[in-house]
């Protein structure tokens, strides 16, 4: 079967700062695409990833821009049937653009290959239009950005790194603490109170650092998790905890302010 003439690009825009979008991503968006697909959490919500892109490419907002912007809803909270229905609907709209000989870019926060909404589209592309040409453009991830804010490396030498959403990781955390040298727990906002209790019980609370909105407006770092206002932090989706399990200089030594 011949490969398609059009390309579906999956383009990661990074953790939030528009100057962390890669040169390759910008080049493709400027020169090679006809349609930009921007996911959003609900029909009434604004697309955060689109707002990031507008800062980097303000020309997209101009009336003479030849690039079509297609905002599609990818619900965050629904049952499996409603979720699959939403993903199917989004896929069919993208498929229609590709069949009309248009190059499509699906933009995502972070990297398209890591906990990305693009995964649901790629699954359907492989199943229903297997000859479609797809190009994934990698990007800076939020946990890499967070570690950079801390002026720390995540892993060194033969050390092992674990990354997973916090609400999936609480039950297995005691085992993970023994198996890995650094653990990144993303989206901790829902389970932050339970996580703090668990870290304290496992005697590793002092090795954990809380990072909110890395590289975005409202960015904040807290090295003493017990000082956090739990109810306020539960409103913050872009939150993570990095647990550095080996002794390191600098990370908790007080050489920088407790919060930033």
| Structure classification | alpha/beta
Largest sheet: 5 strands, parallel
Overall shape? elongated
CATH topology label of the largest domain: Cobalt-precorrin-4 Transmethylase, domain 1
Q: Rg to the nearest angstrom?
A: 20 Å
Strand order of the largest sheet: 3-2-4-1-5
Q: Class of the largest domain in CATH? A: Alpha Beta
Mean of the pLDDT scores? 90
N-to-C CA distance: 55 Å
| Uncertain regions spanning at least 5 consecutive residues | 248-260
Number of domains: 2
**What is the beta-strand fraction?**
15-25%
Total beta strand runs? 10
Description:
The chain is an alpha/beta fold. It folds into 2 domains: 131 residues, Tetrapyrrole methylase, N-terminal domain (Cobalt-precorrin-4 Transmethylase, domain 1); 103 residues, Methyltransferase, Cobalt-precorrin-4 Transmethylase, Domain 2, CATH 3.30.950. Helices cover 32% and strands 20% of the residues. The protein contains 9 helices and 10 strands. The strands form 2 sheets. The protein has a 5-stranded parallel sheet, with helices on both faces. The radius of gyration is 20 Å and the shape is elongated. The N and C termini lie far apart (55 Å). The C terminus is likely disordered.
């Amino acid at each position: 079967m011949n490969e398609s003439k059009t390309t579906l690009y999956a383009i990661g825009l990074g953790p939030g700062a528009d100057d962390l979008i890669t040169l390759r991503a910008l080049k493709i968006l400027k020169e090679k695409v006809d349609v930009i697909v921007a996911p959003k959490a609900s029909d009434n919500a604004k697309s955060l990833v689109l707002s990031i892109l507008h800062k980097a490419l303000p020309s997209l907002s101009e009336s003479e821009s030849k690039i079509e912007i297609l905002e599609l809803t990818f619900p965050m909270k629904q049952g499996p049937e409603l979720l699959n229905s939403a993903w199917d609907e989004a896929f069919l709209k993208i498929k229609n653009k590709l069949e009309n000989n248009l190059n499509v870019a699906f933009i995502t926060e972070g990297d398209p290959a890591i906990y990305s909404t693009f995964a649901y589209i790629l699954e359907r592309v492989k199943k229903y239009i297997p000859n479609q040409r797809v190009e994934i453009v990698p990007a800076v991830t939020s946990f890499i950005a967070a570690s950079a804010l801390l002026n720390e490396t995540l892993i060194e030498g033969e050390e092992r790194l674990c990354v997973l959403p916090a609400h999936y990781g609480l039950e297995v955390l005691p085992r993970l603490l023994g198996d890995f040298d650094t653990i990144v727990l993303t989206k901790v906002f829902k389970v932050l109170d339970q996580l703090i209790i668990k870290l304290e019980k496992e005697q590793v609370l002092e090795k954990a650092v809380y990072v909110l909105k890395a590289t975005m407006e409202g960015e904040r770092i807290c090295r003493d998790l017990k000082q956090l206002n739990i109810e306020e932090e539960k409103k913050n989706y872009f939150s993570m905890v990095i647990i550095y399990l080996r002794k390191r200089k600098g990370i908790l030594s007080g050489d920088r302010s407790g919060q930033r």
